[in-house]
Amino acid sequence: MLRILGRETSINVRKVLWALEELGLQYDREDWGLPIRDPQVPEFLALNPNGQVPVLIEGEFVLWESNAILIYLAEREGILLPQHLESRALALQWLCWQASDLNGTWGYAVYALIRRTPGFDDPEKIAQSLARWGSKMALLEAHLGRGAPYLAGDEFTIADIALGLSIHRWMSIGAEKPDFPAVAEYYGRLLGRAAGQKWMGPQTP
Ligand SMILES: N[C@@H](CCC(=O)N[C@@H](CS)C(=O)NCC(=O)O)C(=O)O
C-alpha cells in the first residue's frame, strides 16, 4: 500500500492526492505538517531532510518533491503523461515552470491574504507579490487563450493538476487582480472533474 505523509490542507499534498484519485490508487495518508504535526523531528527528517510534505513511501522507496511524486505516479501507472514525446515534454515543461517560476511569486500575498499570518501586512510587499504572480498568470492566460483544452494539448496530464491547484490559489485570493478569461474557463474545466472538484473545492485554501 502506498503511504502519503502530509496534511490535506497543503497545496503540494493535494497535487498528489488528486493524482492518486485520478489513477484510482488506494493509499494510506498520515497527517504531517504544521500546525497538525511538526515535520522538523528526526523521524520525519530521516525521510525528507527538507522537513516538508508531501512524502510518498512505497516499501523501502521514499520520494519527496510533489512534482517528482506526480511524475513517478504517472510513469508507474502509464497514464496522466502523454506517450507522444513532444506532448510529454510540454507537460513536463509546465510542471517544471510551476515549481521554478510560478510558485515563487505568491508567497507574501498568500501569507498576507489567505493565511493572515501576523507580520505579513505590508501593502507594498503584498502589491509586489501580486504583481509578480499576475505577470506569470498572464503568461498562462496567453497560452490557454490559444484554445487547447489542457496545458499540453488535448490530454489531461499531471501538469494540469499542479497548475490547476496554483490557479485555485489565485482564484481564492481576495484582492483586486486582473481578469484572465481563458484561465477562468480552464479552471472551470478542471472543476468539472470529480477529483478536481474535491481538491479545489471553493472552501479550500
Ligand atoms: N518543493 C516542495 C515544497 C513542499 C512544501 O513547501 N511543503 C509545505 C506545505 S505546502 C510544507 O511542508 N510546509 C511545512 C509544514 O507544513 O509544516 C514540494 O513541491 O513538495
Describe the structure.
The protein has 205 residues and is α+β, with helices and mostly antiparallel strands. It has two domains: 2-77, Glutaredoxin; 85-198, Glutathione S-transferase Yfyf (Class Pi), Chain A, domain 2 (Up-down Bundle), CATH 1.20.1050. It is 53% helix and 8% strand. The chain contains nine helices and four strands; from the N terminus they run E-H-E-H-E-E-H-H-H-H-H-H-H. It has helices spanning 11-23, 42-45, 66-77, 85-102, 107-113, 123-144, 158-172, 181-191, 194-199; strands at residues 2-5, 27-30, 55-58, 61-64. It has a four-stranded mixed sheet with strand order 2-1-3-4, covered by helices on one side. Helix 1 (11-23) packs parallel to helix 3 (66-77), helix 1 packs across helix 7 (158-172) and helix 5 crosses helix 6 (123-144). The model has no long low-confidence stretch (mean pLDDT 96). Bound molecules: glutathione (GSH). Residues 10-12, 33-34, 39, 52-54, 65-67 line the site of glutathione.
